[in-house]
Every structure is written in C-alpha cells, then in structure tokens.
C-alpha cells in the first residue's frame, strides 16, 4: 500500500504525480524501448500511456536502464507481464514508470477502470428505472376534486355557431389522426441554415485520410469502409499467454473505444454483454445456423479448403507487385542499395596486333600459382559461335584470310605486370576452343581443339627464362591425342578432378592417399564426355615387335612426349537423345561437374550400388536450351571404354538459345548459374524443374562469372555492356552497368582479389579492378543471407509444384487433355508401326520376286544373243581404236554431273518438305527472341555457327551449279545438230520391210 496519501485524478490517464510505493520512475532510450516493445507513439500513446512488458526482458536489462537496486523485486514478481507507463506530456520523451509489485499494478488497473467508467458515464447516459415519489394507488376519476384553484387549468378553445349559443352541448374526445387538420407541422424559418459537419468517406483502409489517387491494384474492395483509427493496420501478434489469473481478469481482453485506444474490460461487464447477446439470439436460431453451416461445409468443403489455402499464401487486399518492388532490405543490411557504390577501373590492356589481327579470344586461363600470369587463346572469328549472335557485326572474308595464310591459331601467355608484349607464344595449327592449367602441375596446359583432339604443352622453366632474357619464346605442343580415339566434334569444356580421387577404367571412383591424381574431363559437341589421365602409361603387352617394346619402355617417363598420338580417354560417357526414337545425339555446349564436397566424401567402391552416387553426376548445358543431369553406374569387374549415361532429370526450356555457360557457385556448392540467349537463371542443383531466379535482358548474353563476393556475379552482353548483379541488394536490375567495348564482349573472367577480365571482339583483353564502396556487409552475413534466399525460393517452388500436381491430378479438364494426348500419341505410333510393316512387306515381296526371276533359267537364244552383243561391242571398239577405260574417263564428268543433279534435286525436295524447319532456323539467326515458343515439341535448334556454315555451303553449291549450267548451255548452243530427213527414214524402213518379207518367202 502507498505510504503517502494521495488523491487520484480520475480525468487524467497519466501516472499520478504523487510518490506511490513500488512505482519507480525510469528512463528508457529508443533502443531500450525497442527491446522492451514499449515504443512511444507505437506501443504507448498519450491517450492511453500504459502497456505490458515481459518480466524476463526487464530483469536482463536492469543494469542497462538503471534498476540494479530493484533487481530483487523484479525477480520476486511472479506474473510474466509487468505494467509500465509513459510519464510525460510530450510527444517524445524517455520518462517512464514501472510497477514492481502486484499491489501497485492492481492499484493502477483499478484507477484506470474508474477513469474509464467516469468517462462512460459522461458520454453515455444509461436508462434507469423510474422511482415514484407519490403513492402508487390508482386514483379514480370520480374521486378527483379540484381543491386547489391555484393550480393551472387546461385551456380549451371551442368554435360554435351563434345559433347554438345557449343550447346544451355534448363534448367528446377524439384522436388527432382521425381528423384532417388534427396535426400541426412545425417549420423553421426559410432563412435559417444549419452548420452540418461532413464526414469523409474512405473506400480503402488507410492510415491517414490523404487525397485520393487513382491507382491500379490486384483486387478491388466492392464496399466502402470507414476507418477512423490512426495506428496499426493489422492487429498485434500475440507474443505469449499470460498465466497470472488476476491479470487475465483485469487486462486479458481489449475492445476498441470511440477514441481508438485499447482499454481493459472487467469480467462482470463481459458477463453482462454475453447475457444480453444470449437474450437476442434464441436457441432455435442457433440450431438453424448450425444446420445451415453444416450443410454449407458438406457441399462446398473442397472449394472452401482451396480458398483458405490460397488466401493464406496471397494477400488479396494488397498490391503484391508494388510491395515486392518497395520491400525493405534484409535485417543484416545496414545501408540501402542506393548507398552502395560499385566502381570498375581499367588496370591494363593486353593486345598484340601483329599476332591477333583478325582473331578473337576463345578462352582464358589464369595461372594457379602466379596470379599475374594468364594464358589467352586466339582463333578465327568464324569459329566462335558468340560472334554470330550479334547481327550488326561486319562481314569477314574468310577466303582472303586463307589465301594470306594469317589463320594459324595460337596461345599467348601474358603477365599483368608487363602488359606491353606477351611472354610466350604456344603455336599450333589447330584452333583452340578451351584451355586450362593443371592444378597439381602448373607448368602443364591442356587445350581442347575444334577437331576434338586434346593438345598438351609443358612450360617448365620457359616463363622464368623469358623473364630473364626478355625475348618472346615460341613453344610447340608436347603431345596430341590420338585423332581416331578423340572426340568427333569441338571440345567445349575442360574440368579437373580433385587430386585426391581417381576414376578407374571400370567407371568407379577410388581414393588416392598421396593426392597425385592428374585426371580431367572434357565435354564435346558430339554428345560425349571423356575422362583423361595424364599419368597414363602405354600398355607393355600390346607391342609385338622388339622395336615397339623398346620404344614403349623408353616412353615410361613423366614427360608428355610419351603421350604423343597415343593419348586417348580411358572412359567415355554418351548422352542419350531427348526422344528415344530420335537418332541424333544431344550437342553439349558446357559442362559442370559435382561439387567438391561430393568428391571429398568419396569412398572406395564396395558392393553398395549407391556408393558415390553424388560424385557420379554431371550437369550439362545443351544446344536445345535445357540443363540435363546425368549419372552412370560403372562396372564391378569388367573394364569398359564407354557407357551410356542415365538421365536423372531435365530442366524446362527457360532459355531462348543454347546454354553456353553453366557455373557452380564457390560459396554455395548447390547453386548453379546459367546463361543462354538473352536470359540468365539461377538454379539449385537438386531442383531443376524451375529456376529460382531468372531475368531477360535486351541484348544477347555472351558470358557470365561468379564474383569472389557471395551473391554477386557478372554478365556480359553482345552490345558491349558489363553488368554487375548483387542479389543481396537488388534482384530486379543490375547494381552497376559499364560499357567495356564498342562491340560484343566475348567473355568475362574473375580472379581472386577483385580482378576482372573482359574479352574484346577485336582480340584485346581488358583487366579491371572491381571496387565495392560503402559496403558494411561482412562475408559471413552475405553467405547467410544468400543461403536463406536460396532455401526460401526452393521451398516456395516445391510447394507450388506440389499443389499444382495435386490439382492437375483431380482436375477433370486436365485429366481429359492428358488422356487425349496419350490416345493421340498411341494412335500415331500405331500408324507409324503399320506403315513400317507395310514397307517391310513390300520390300520382302520385291526381293522375293527378284530372287524368283534370277532362278528362272535363260534360253540358249538369249545367252547367244548376249554373247554376240558383247563380241560386237569389242570388235567395234577395236576397229575405232577406242579403249573402254579412256571412254569411262571421258564419260565420268557427265555421269558425275548427272549424279550431282540428282543430289541437288533430292536436296531441293527435302528443303521444300522441311520449309518450316528452315524458317525456324532463320528466326534463330535473325530474331533469337522470337523462337522461345518453338523449342517445345520441335526438332532441336542448330547452333548459330552451324546454320551460317550450312548457308555458306549452300551458296557455294549454287554458285558451282550456275557455272556448270552456263557451260552446258554454251555447249548446247554451239553444238552441230544432225540433220533429220523424214522421207529418207521412211524409205529405209520400207526397204528393210521388203527384205524381211522376201527372206520369209524363201
């Protein structure tokens, strides 16, 4: 109980100014208010300055807010919630009071209840029972006597005719409704104007009554709503249940007052309101409502469940698109994306015009142990598919380049410290598509050519000698792979296996304790993936002669010369086609192996068939624009050279072109980045049904790379722009765009330390420093946010597709369409099988007839006639002096011309039959974005380079055909035609007829 006497002011909600026992003043800063959930003007207001806070939080923050002396009282406070009040008349202040005991809390609660009751009595006058002050006996009219004449009398006005005066009158009462003029209408003066106060009608729930604006949103509320509160749009979330009974009785339930502030309702008032409600609603109405509700749920249970699930995921009364666009940054971000500054500053430019004239960069490889050294491969512009993606590039005369002899491909080794000239020149007559340094032996460079061969160089001490002498050294390749056992098409990707594991010739992985493995895999356009081993030694049992045995023994060294022209893959994987009936192979554009975690957990293969399944997985990017996840089993004992892979899953056709890059993030091993056409996408390696994030750009994309910062990657475009994407800041647009070239950028490469390299179309390589200013996000915070983003998006996609699959299984329309497609496919297969069977029967009948005709014996006359014809031919040739061989040689051009004509006619018929396919291929070249809908259910789209080469070959064939046609027409015009006389022919015929007739008569 309070020590000092006080008088409670029932007209003020603020804490009493008198000192009350166990009500302690305290100062709370803004940070402390946020921690205790008692923020001024958000949780506590001047209109009602009281709120409940958790006892545990106040106990933990006792030292911080200056309540160390009262820590024992706070600990002895049994209920979970403590009452706190705002002790200031200002809008923003730090003065508060805290009730440390239950008695003090009950005193304040009862005080607030009295204040509320007093206000209610002033605002709402309740109807009370009439109390009579006189006697309640009924007084009869005949007993009423007017004893006091001083009381006022009723005045009655009676209108009579003069003829009725003096006559007896009979009066009776009547109602005013029964007469025409029984009511009098009271009207105010016409010049009196009322001062009405209009209220604003708001058609949308808003915090303030601002000026209305026409705006498009997802949904429209069909009924107007008046809202006159000034605070939260949504009810506060319940943070816990109150276990104290007294607090439940006094402050458990809240109701909205006319001023918009929450107040406590006692249990007695709650009982009164419940009794009144029970009187209004009878028992019969309750039963009827229950029955109608039960019938409604029985009829519309499925639809109601779907609506509830849908509304729980989507807010129908808000603009989701705008909310996503203006959503706040994550909690770990202390600055907004506009405050982050990205700068890309050019450091050096690597180009040698005497060597790279008319060439373009195909691939770049950083030295693993020398960050300043870099190897760059140069090829002709016609061999790079990315060049053809941009239609406004200048035309190149390839025949002139071949005539000048300036087409030899090469690899230049540069140093960023000395960018004026290259250090080494690696010569080779074959064009290099990809190259890579060996991680465990950094002096070895492995390159993949357009012919499908693997080329090896060993630099050894060449770099050190070049730095000492200052001269440019030219190095020839140490070894080339066997062309018969290599890839059949260009190699598109090279990836090294970890040095701690090895792939055996059986297709199984094994651990190596000394980390001496030097194996790598290559992906080619021929639809195969090959595994190579630099430690491979020739088989001593294969050579038979003594010379071969001696040469094989001499080649058992660590030098790469031993592999020249005999190096071949020890294991090969073949990618099956998308359609089982198709005879073509899938063209692989890029390859992504399993993560390092999968290889680090490799165990020596045992009898368990599922051992090392994650390591035996590859993600492939195809020309058709899909990601294919493949796996293989291998053999237990038998050694095999190749194996058909099993397709685990395929992605959707999200890209509008071939997937030219597929990269795995170094920060999150299960995240993939792909580009194809004008679209880039982020995937999760175990969920390829739909990308987690994808964006379409205005121009075609040429390359992409993950940055050394989590969640940051670089994308290059065909118009020369370099985009920097930071999904921790923005997901709708790049955070930085910079022009690095006037034409397309062929590739981008990232080195640890913030160095970024971009390949120019003219053969130059630009090195930039990527700077990120005003970024207070540390490395761990970025990784944590990136992981949460990936997991959230993946869970959301899975949940949606799970719901979609369940819906399509039960939807009658979808099931009917699926059954119709299955029936149509079955009918088509039956027709194809029937046509195939009929063709086979016709072919068998033809062969049977030919064999039957050959078995018929020829007559002697026929045999004699054939022999005479052969003898006559030989005699005529001898008399004329002709040789059959020379005649065949002279006749061969005409025969060849006829064959070519037949081939051209066949090609023309095929073109006419496949005119739709050629039209789609032309769209791919001219309008890549217009072919997004043609990828489903059609033949695979060829690469841009193949289409261009095919068009070039067609133009050459047409040119040669026109030349031969002109030559033939000239010969026909100048040839001497024999003179034909009809009379002579008829006379000769009559003479022969007469001769035969005479012979028959004889």
TrEMBL record:
Which keywords annotate this record?
Coiled coil, Cytoplasm, Repeat, WD repeat
State whether keyword Cytoplasm applies. Answer: yes
> Sorted alphabetically, which InterPro entries does this protein's record hold?
Dynein_IC, WD40/YVTN_repeat-like_dom_sf, WD40_repeat_dom_sf, WD40_rpt
What are the boundaries of the region Disordered? 237-284
- Which GO MF terms are attached to this record? dynein heavy chain binding; dynein light chain binding
Give one GO biological process term.
inner dynein arm assembly
Protein name, as recorded: WD repeat-containing protein 63
Q: Name one GO cellular component term.
A: inner dynein arm
Signal sequence, start to end? none
State where it is primarily located.
Answer: cytoplasm
**Which spans does this entry mark as compositional bias, Polar residues?**
257-267
Top-level lineage group: Eukaryota
| Coiled coil (residue ranges) | 816-850
Q: Where is the composition biased (Basic and acidic residues)?
A: 268-282
What species does this protein belong to?
Bracon brevicornis
Name its cellular compartments.
Answer: Cytoplasm
């Amino acid at each position: 109980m309070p020590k000092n006497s006080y008088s409670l002011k029932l007209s003020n909600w603020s804490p009493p100014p008198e000192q009350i026992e166990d009500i302690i003043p305290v100062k709370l800063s803004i940070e402390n208010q946020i921690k205790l959930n008692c923020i001024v003007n958000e949780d506590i207001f001047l209109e009602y300055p009281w709120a409940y806070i958790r006892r545990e939080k106040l106990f933990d923050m006792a030292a911080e807010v200056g309540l160390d002396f009262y820590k024992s009282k706070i600990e002895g406070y049994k209920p979970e919630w403590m009452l706190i009040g705002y002790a200031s008349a200002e809008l923003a202040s730090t003065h508060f009071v805290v009730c440390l005991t239950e008695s003090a809390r009950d005193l304040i609660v009862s005080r607030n209840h009295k204040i509320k009751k007093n206000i209610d009595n002033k605002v709402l006058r309740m109807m009370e029972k009439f109390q009579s002050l006189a006697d309640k006996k009924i007084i009869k009219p005949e007993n009423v006597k007017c004893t006091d004449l001083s009381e006022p009398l009723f005045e009655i006005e009676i209108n009579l005719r003069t003829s009725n005066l003096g006559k007896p009158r009979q009066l009776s009462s009547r109602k005013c409704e029964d007469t025409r003029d029984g009511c009098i209408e009271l009207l105010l003066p016409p010049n009196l104007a009322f001062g009405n106060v209009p209220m604003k009608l708001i058609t949308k729930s808003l915090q303030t009554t601002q000026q209305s604006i026409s705006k498009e949103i997802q949904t429209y509320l069909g009924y107007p709503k008046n809202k006159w509160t000034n605070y939260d749009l949504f009810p506060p979330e319940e943070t816990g249940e109150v276990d104290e009974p007294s607090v439940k009785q006094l402050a458990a339930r809240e109701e909205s007052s006319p001023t918009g502030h929450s107040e406590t309702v006692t249990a007695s008032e709650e009982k009164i309101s419940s009794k009144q409600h029970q009187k209004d609603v009878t028992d019969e109405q309750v039963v009827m409502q229950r029955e109608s509700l039960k019938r409604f749920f029985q009829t519309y249970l499925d639809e109601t469940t779907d609506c509830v699930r849908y509304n729980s995921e989507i807010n129908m009364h808000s603009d989701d698109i705008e909310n996503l666009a203006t959503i706040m940054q994550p909690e770990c971000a202390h600055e907004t994306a506009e405050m982050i500054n990205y700068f890309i500053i050019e450091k050096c430019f690597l180009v040698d015009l005497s060597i790279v004239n008319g060439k373009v960069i195909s691939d770049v490889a950083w030295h693993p142990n020398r960050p300043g050294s870099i190897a760059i491969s140069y090829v002709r512009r016609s061999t790079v598919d990315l060049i053809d993606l941009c239609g406004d590039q200048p035309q190149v005369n390839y025949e002139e380049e071949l005539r000048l002899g300036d087409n030899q491909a090469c690899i230049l080794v540069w140093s960023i410290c000395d960018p004026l000239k290259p250090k080494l020149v690696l010569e080779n007559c074959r064009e290099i598509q990809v190259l890579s340094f060996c991680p465990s032996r950094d002096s070895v460079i492995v390159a993949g050519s357009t012919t499908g061969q693997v080329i090896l160089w060993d630099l050894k001490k060449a770099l050190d000698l070049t730095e000492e002498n200052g001269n440019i050294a030219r190095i020839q390749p140490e070894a080339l792979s066997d062309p018969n056992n290599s890839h059949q098409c260009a190699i598109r990707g090279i990836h090294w296996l970890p040095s701690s594991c090895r792939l055996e010739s059986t297709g199984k992985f094994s651990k190596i304790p000394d980390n001496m493995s030097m194996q790598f895999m290559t992906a080619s356009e021929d639809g195969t993936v090959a595994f190579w081993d630099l430690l491979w030694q020739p088989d001593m049992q294969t050579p038979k002669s003594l010379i071969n045995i001696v040469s094989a023994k001499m080649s058992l060294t660590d030098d790469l010369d031993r592999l020249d022209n005999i190096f071949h893959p020890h294991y090969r994987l073949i990618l099956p086609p998308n359609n089982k009936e198709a005879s073509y192979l899938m063209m692989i554009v890029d390859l992504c192996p399993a993560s390092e975690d999968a290889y680090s957990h490799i165990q020596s293969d045992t009898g368990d068939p599922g051992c090392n399944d994650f390591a035996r997985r590859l993600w492939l990017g195809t020309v058709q624009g899909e990601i294919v996840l493949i796996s293989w089993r291998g053999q237990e004992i038998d050694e095999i050279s190749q194996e058909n892979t099993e397709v685990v899953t395929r992605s959707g056709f999200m890209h509008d072109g071939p997937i030219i890059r597929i990269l795995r993030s170094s920060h999150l091993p299960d995240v993939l980045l792909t580009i194809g056409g004008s679209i880039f996408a982020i995937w999760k390696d175990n969920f390829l049904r739909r990308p987690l994030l994808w964006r379409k750009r205005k121009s075609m994309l040429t390359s992409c790379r993950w940055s050394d910062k989590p969640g940051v990657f670089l994308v290059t475009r065909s118009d020369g722009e370099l985009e920097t994407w930071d999904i921790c800041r923005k997901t709708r647009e790049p955070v930085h765009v910079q022009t690095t070239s006037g034409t397309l950028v062929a590739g981008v490469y990232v080195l640890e330390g913030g160095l970024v390299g971009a390949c120019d179309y003219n053969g130059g390589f630009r090195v930039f420093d990527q700077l990120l200013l005003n970024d207070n996000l540390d490395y761990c915070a970025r990784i944590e946010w990136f992981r949460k983003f990936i997991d959230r998006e993946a869970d959301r996609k899975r949940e949606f597709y799970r719901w979609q699959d369940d819906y399509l299984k039960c939807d009658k329309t979808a099931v009917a369409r699926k059954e119709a497609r299955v029936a149509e496919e079955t009918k088509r297969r039956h027709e194809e099988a029937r046509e195939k069977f009929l063709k086979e029967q016709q072919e068998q009948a033809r062969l049977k007839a030919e064999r039957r005709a050959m078995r018929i014996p020829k007559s002697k006359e026929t045999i004699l006639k054939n022999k005479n014809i052969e003898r006559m031919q030989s005699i005529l040739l001898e008399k004329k002096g002709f040789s059959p061989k020379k005649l065949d040689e002279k006749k061969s051009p005409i025969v060849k011309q006829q064959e070519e004509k037949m081939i051209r006619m066949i090609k023309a018929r095929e073109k006419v039959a496949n005119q739709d396919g050629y039209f789609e291929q032309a769209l791919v070249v001219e309008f890549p974005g217009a072919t997004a809908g043609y990828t489903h259910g059609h033949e695979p789209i060829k690469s841009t380079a193949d289409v261009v080469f095919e068009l070039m070959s067609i133009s050459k064939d047409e040119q040669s055909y026109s030349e031969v046609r002109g030559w033939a027409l000239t010969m026909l015009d100048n040839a001497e035609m024999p003179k034909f006389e009809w009379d002579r022919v008829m006379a000769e015929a009559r003479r022969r007829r007469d001769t035969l007739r005479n012979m028959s008569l004889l």
